[in-house]
Design goal:
With 129 residues, the chain is mainly alpha-helical. The chain has helices at 2-18, 41-45, 73-79, 92-95, 112-123; strands at residues 50-51, 54-55. The chain has one domain (2-123). The protein has a two-stranded antiparallel ribbon with strand order 1-2. The protein is elongated and about 75 Å long.
């Protein structure tokens, strides 16, 4: 009888421990942009939203709350409260970018260099330049 309890106890502990599941969160390392490198909205940030194969504007278009189409993106981002100028880590645009914590699987991610540009642009004040 004692041997049976030991086996049951070991089996119970094993099943209990092995049933614990945690999603591992991997932090990606975003490269720094040199201070002397210009980061402009019109030439560096806005084009990221409508590239072939990584086209955010398929969902974020004129009919969406966040309109990332050329010529509309800046006003939509700023007026919609998606950026906290000077604070990329606290900005929804950076937090929810594909490859960060986008709420949907959109079939692509922005690479670390794209994320670095967005982060730097926001941290430098999110200017319309």
């Amino acid at each position: 009888m004692t041997k049976g309890w030991k086996i049951m106890l070991c089996l119970g502990v094993f099943l209990g421990v092995s049933s614990c599941y945690y999603d591992k969160e991997f932090e990606i390392e975003i490269p720094d942009i040199p201070d002397n490198q210009e980061v402009l909205f019109r030439t560096d940030i806005e084009p990221l939203f409508s590239r072939s194969g990584k086209d955010c504007t398929q969902c974020h278009n004129e009919s969406a709350d966040l309109n990332l189409t050329i010529g509309n993106a800046y006003n939509s981002i700023v007026q919609g409260g998606y950026v906290d100028a000077g604070n990329a880590e606290g900005s929804l645009l950076f937090q929810r970018a594909p490859g960060q914590n986008h709420p949907l699987d959109v079939g692509f991610i922005l690479d670390v260099n794209d994320l670095a540009l967005i982060k730097e642009w926001i941290d430098r004040g999110a200017l319309n330049n």
